[in-house]
Specification:
12% strand, 3-stranded antiparallel sheet, 38% helix, alpha+beta, 2 domains, single chain, 184 residues
């Protein structure tokens, strides 16, 4: 079986976070990581015991040809290709979860809290950029076949209108505009 590509370590870690332990459901996982070779390709291997039940856990992802180094000011999950790890609706869910934790305004926030809110909004915008990568050139929306997970299928079925290109672009730009307001 061919390994799926993790375009950045952030994408790999997000994937692991979204896939809890099969034995006990524990989401926390602090694996040791290493670079290995699998079928002639370089790969990242994340392995270690589940902190909940001790079961051995392992994730192995193909590495990209060019390594992307995200930063707080540019929290990217990948290059211009759609993700092989998360489907379009999972990326939308990630954006929703991250953005929902941001305070509605800056009143009473410390400088550090404003900085973290800004990073969260930039990260939510980046997750929406990932959703948009699934929309074919010239298409008005992300197609249903860009969703393959059970979580994603549920989201897409309930709210297919959220996958329209124009709507995704407006929400993404709104997050970027809000992020600029949280700058120190």
């Amino acid at each position: 079986m061919a390994l799926r590509l993790a375009r950045t370590s952030a994408e790999a870690h997000l994937y692991m976070e979204l896939h809890p332990c099969d034995a006990c459901g524990e989401q926390q996982f602090e694996p040791a990581d290493s670079v290995i070779e699998v079928d002639g390709d370089l790969a990242s291997r994340y392995a270690g015991p589940c902190p909940g039940c001790g079961a051995a856990r392992e994730f192995v992802f193909r590495l990209p040809q060019q390594i992307i180094m995200p930063s707080d000011d540019d929290p990217r999950f990948g290059d211009n290709r759609p993700s092989e790890l998360l489907d379009a609706a999972e990326w939308l869910w990630v954006a929703d979860v991250i953005a929902s934790g941001v305070p509605p305004d800056q009143a009473g926030l410390t400088g550090e809290e404003r900085r973290l809110a800004r990073i969260d909004l930039l990260t939510a915008a980046s997750a929406l950029s990932e959703v948009l990568k699934f929309a074919p050139e010239g298409a008005d929306a992300v197609p249903a076949d860009a969703v393959w997970s059970s979580r994603g299928s549920e989201i897409y079925t309930v709210e297919p209108g959220r996958f329209r290109r124009a709507r995704l672009e407006v929400v993404r730009q709104t997050y970027l505009d809000l992020a600029s307001r949280f700058a120190n």
